[in-house]
Amino acid sequence: MSIKNLMGTVTDDDLQLTKTSLRLEPDDTEDDILLRMLIKTARRDIIGQIGEQIDDFFDDNEVFKTAVLVEVGHLYNHRDSTSAQQEFEVPMALYSLINSMKDDYRYRLYLQAQVNTDGEKAGKNTEKDSSFASDNKLKNEPANSPQDSNLMNEEGENNG
Prior knowledge:
elongated, 0% strand, single chain, mainly alpha
């Protein structure tokens, strides 16, 4: 399922899984609208923290599904208005799950960049495909390489 679909739709299976996670009766439809909204909100939040460049990253991703369930559970159980003295912290498990996904996501981006770089060397790469590979973080050359003719020294003289 594409990221756009994940953030915009909730399947009946996802709704039932969420109800099971929250220990709600499957036949009780009173909170279905709220639950669908919370699922989309949690997905949007988690995807926003991880990234949207790899469209299929979240497909069949059990860590993502678990993180969504944890966040929905938190949002559902703490949906009452709170005073300034009452605070509800997000469960630590959610942070751990998100950090785990960030690591996997960055590694997949790195692998894609390597494939794109290899494709560029072979002449099979397009400008769109190589946009991430051109990022200095993934290049072997440092950001202040002599190849950058626009660098200035401390006195404002051009080093190029």
